[in-house]
Specification:
Strand content: 25-35%
Shape: globular
Low-confidence stretches: 1-32
Helix content: 10-25%
Largest sheet: 8 strands, mixed
Number of strands: 15
Number of helices: 9
Radius of gyration: 19 Å
Bound molecules: zinc ion
Order of helices and strands: HEEHEEEHEHEHHHEEEEEHHEEE
Oligomer: single chain
Structural class: alpha+beta
Length: 330
Amino acid sequence: MSTTSRRSLIISAAVAGAALGLDKSLAVIAPARGLQTPDPAPGFFRYRVGDAECTAIYDGIWEKAHDPAFFSNASVAETKEALAAAGLTTAFVPIPITVFVVKLNGKLVLCDAGGGDQVQAFNPQSTFISGRLMANMRAAGIDPKRIETVLISHFHPDHIFGLLEKKTNAPVFPNAEIIVPAAEYKWWTDPSLISRLPAGRKPLAHRIQAVIPKWKNVLPVEGEDEVVPGISFVSAPGHTPGHTAFHIGSGNEQLMISNDTAYVPALCAAHPGWHGVFDQNAALAEASRRKLLDRVIADKMMICGSHFPWPGLGKITRDGARYALTVQTT
Ligand SMILES: [Zn+2]
């Protein structure tokens, strides 16, 4: 995209959000029980993809209570069976949050921003911990002030609340360019959206509309541009209207940062046809999931994801009509 069209998008985005007020519904429900998953030590994991230095950084975990509404076409018993088959606990659905930092071609790029200790667990039987990102980034020897670019996959709280200070909404990365999918930006910042959203999603849209369009360092990008040298957007809509994966290519090696395309692989890769309640358009999400996983296999890429088992890196193989993830930990 040219500099001129990028600038005009920033300006139109600022105009779109100018008339909106602040969201006041940021209360966090205290979890009824303690966290059962110990934090990994250390809370970072480093690996190379060609010349790219990738660091997975632990942000937290959602220990999600089982809920028959989680998938429209799979029962709680089937969900537990799939978790057990992957060697995971069945006491709850483990949904870790991992954020990725990529150093490539002299650029330091943060891929999504985690939950910033600001995401509700919704259900008192669930525990949601986030916001470990900054401390773990420092432990990994990465100074958050040196992040030049932030790529955002989609605007769900566990991916963008880490961009905002908890009480003030002040920007956590004021000096970085924040590159977002234009389709995602347009959808969430449309003032007519709020009346169309279910009650549970309205506070998120209010907060986005009150804050993000006012930031001058947010850059919506259309389609599948190379957004920084060596890293390209890959459209994977369905989870949200503009949900996007990130592709890294360096030398002969490739990594697909799949974000939420197959969020919990034990469930969504092993059963790609299961339709989750957090996939806004579940049929489109399934099509995007199959297309992306098929591409990863065909091109022999490594894959990582925001909610893959820590440290989020693995290999995908085809297992009949299903996909299987082998987690890589060394
Ligand atoms: Zn997510």
